Amino acid sequence: MQKTMAEYIWLDGVQPTAHLRSKTKIVEGTVTRLEDLPGWGYDGSSTQQASGHFSDCQLKPVHFVPDPIRGENHILVMCEVFNADGSVHVSNTRAGLREVAACYVGEESWFGIEQEYVLMEGGRPAGWPKDSFPAPQGDYYCAVGDRFVAGRGLVEEHMQACLKAGLRFSGINAEVMLGQWEFQIGPLPPLQMADELWIARWLLLRLGEDYGYDICLDPKPFKGDWNGSGAHTNFSTRAMRAPGGQAVIEEACEILGRNHDKHIAVYGSGNDERLTGRHETCSIREFRYGVSDRGASIRIPMATAQSGAGYLEDRRPAANADPYQVCAALVRTACGKW
Ligand code: ADP
Ligand code: MN
Ligand code: MN
Ligand code: MN
């Protein structure tokens, strides 16, 4: 009988930023539905999710895609974490998004995240000289050519892998700092987008092993005149996309401004080092929105302003933010007006 290698993936309890963990289960037969996948368990005391005395945590499969690395019928399985008694584990942020998304399903919200990251090699960004700095920023963004670009092999392989996995992958670009890149996922409803972003991050980390690159999602890997890494979150509801939607977008921006601190609290650890008011950011202590303004907290894209409907771009989330928490906060504030 055919055997399926199912890679069960989950978020651990490491604070302040959870890491991805995974292990492989061999499942008899081919998996065509979520119900074909059994639950599983692991030692939560090794992932900061339990004490040694009572350490079992449960994994419940919630979303699976083809595994582009193992091929054939093998799969990657995103899981939620539950306690031994079946209650939701405190680290399970997906459960929170599940609830909020279900409340506001009628709003038909869509998300697209731009994931920025830095490829690190031997503790330095890819392409950087060993003990000095590369030429200042300016020539690296969307560049081509060996002088300006580092790590493209992995970036291309990652894109191919995400497409093979069937993710709603929407693009890549070289970023402002040498060795820094971006990929985008979306637009998709919140749970799907966040699941796919976590799977795309898992694939990047996993393929990075083969290239000897560590994937750095720190919001500000290098102090000084070097861009940080964000996770710009593009967001719309059906009303925002419909004719006259710009008024709805502006109303959402006003409400978001009144909830700035609540959002910053879940937009990633160390984000204060990135949101300085320089390097295409707005200071973490301010909230501003504007059309085409890359120095604002929220940018209304030019195309949205021109057509009078579309989406907003929340530029505040850091590269290490948890998309389950970011999407939940946006739906809660903008749709629920909490
Ligand atoms: P930027 O100009 O900020 O670099 P990108 O092209 O990198 O923008 O990313 C734009 C993102 O916006 C993509 O991930 C895309 O999926 C998403 N997006 C496009 N339309 C919508 C929409 N109506 N609602 C939510 N997200 C959207
Ligand atoms: Mn972008
Ligand atoms: Mn970018
Ligand atoms: Mn952007």
SSE blueprint:
Blueprint: E1 3-11, E2 20-28, E3 40-43, E4 56-66, E5 75-83, H1 93-103, E6 110-121, E7 124-125, H2 152-164, E8 169-174, E9 180-188, H3 190-211, E10 214-216, E11 231-236, H4 238-241, H5 245-258, H6 260-264, E12 289-291, E13 298-300, H7 302-307, E14 312-314, H8 323-335
Parallel strand pairs: 1-5, 12-13
Antiparallel strand pairs: 1-2, 3-4, 4-5, 6-7, 6-9, 6-10, 6-11, 8-9, 11-14, 13-14
Descriptive account of the structure:
The chain is α+β, with helices and mostly antiparallel strands and 338 residues long. It has two domains: 3-91, Ubiquitin-like (UB roll); 101-336, Glutamine synthetase/guanido kinase, catalytic domain (Creatine Kinase, Chain A, domain 2), CATH 3.30.590.10. It has eight helices and 14 strands. The strands form two sheets. Strands 6, 7, 8, 9, 10, 11, 12, 13 and 14 form a nine-stranded mixed beta sheet that branches. Strands 2-1-5-4-3 form a five-stranded mixed beta sheet, with helices on one face. Helix 1 (93-103) packs parallel to helix 8, helix 2 crosses helix 3 and helix 3 (190-211) runs antiparallel to helix 8. The chain is globular, with a radius of gyration of 20 Å. The mean pLDDT is 96. Residues 114, 116, 175, 182 line the site of one manganese (II) ion (MN). One manganese (II) ion (MN) binds next to loops.
